[in-house]
Each structure stands twice: as structure tokens, then as C-alpha cells.
Amino acid sequence: MKILIVYGTVEGHTRKIARFMENVLQKENHHVVISNVVEDPPAPNDFDVVFVGSSVHIQKYNTLIYDYVQENIDTLNEKSSAFFSVSMAMASSIKQEHEEVLQIAHDFLNETEWNTKTIWHIAGALKYTKYNYFKKLIMRSIAKKEGGSIDTTQDHEYTDWGKVKKDVLSFINSLET
Q: Is the separation of the CB atoms in 46 and 1 below 8 Å?
């Protein structure tokens, strides 16, 4: 299968997840093209499957991801596709945090009119080493409230890599049957 992965990232963790998906799919002998949305990604027309992913920041997805989906909505709605949403809220044990992220994704899909049935909510990372002083303080405060790591000398990943692999393979395998 020919698969396109388009992603939007701020601190680089969504790129890491997209690259992980690419490696999983290539090991299954799929042809994968991966593109950061800021690098003029290819249109989805020539692909069998399209994955689009973005991190959530300040309760919104990457504006360029929004634009990409809008520009290619007819093709995306005709093809097999999946949306992967990356947020620290998914690492939280607070139910309301999960509900907010689910609502953000729901609103995004409604606003863009994208009819994908496959949405993966993936816990992100605290990239303390990439934050400026003020963002580091804010993220540390949030992490403390939610039981996350407050050690700002290093980054902390909360992504369940086994689940990401399982979800991607399950999705692709369902298309091949």
C-alpha cells in the first residue's frame, strides 16, 4: 500500500510519532511518504491511505494541518484515513482532561468536514529542555497538578509506543482483508 503521513508539530514529538508509524509500516513492506505540514506536503490523491496528525497546543491543532485538511477534504473523505491527535492531556488521570481533548478533536473534524472514522488520541511528551523559562514554569505547574514529572532538567515521554504500533497495524490490516 502507498501511505501518506502528514503531521504538524511544535516541539517535535508529533514528528517522532509520525516517524515511528513510518517505521512500523515500512517493516510491513508498505511504501510510506512522510511530510511535515510546513514543508508543502503532497496532496493525498496518489495514495491509498492517509494519516494526518497534529499536537494540541492551547486547545487547538496546528493551523497548517487545519488548512491541509480543508484543501484536501474531498480526497480525504474518499480515501481510507486516520487522524492522530497528540496531547499531554491524554497522559492525565483527570477524566475532564480526556473529555476536553475528545471535544477538540470532534470540533476539528466537524469544522473541516473530515469524515474519518479513525482517531487515535496519543499521549505526548513534556519537552522541558525545549521550553523557554516561562513555558517551563507553566508546564511544570500543570504537570505537578496532574501528577506528571516536574524534573525540568530532562524531557519526559508519555506515549504508549506499543499501543501506537498496535493501532496502526490493526488499521492497515483491516484494509487489507
A: no
Strand pairing of 2-8 and 31-36? parallel
Helices (H), 28-160: 63-71, 73-78, 95-112, 133-146
pLDDT of residue 139: 82
Contacts of 70 (CB under 8 A, 6+ apart): 112
Range of the domain at 40: 2-124+159-176
Q: Is the pLDDT of residue 92 over 90?
A: no
At residue 86, what are phi and psi to the nearest 5 degrees? -110, 125
What backbone phi and psi angles, to 5 degrees, belong to 147?
Answer: 80, 20
- Residue 146 pLDDT more than 80? no
The SS3 assignment for 1 reads: coil
Q: In terms of DSSP H, where are the helices of 73-157? A: 73-78, 95-112, 133-146
Residue 33 carries which side chain, given as an amino acid letter?
Answer: V
- pTM confidence score: 0.92
Which amino acid would we find at residue 166?
Answer: K
Tell whether 92 and 56 lie within a shared domain.
yes
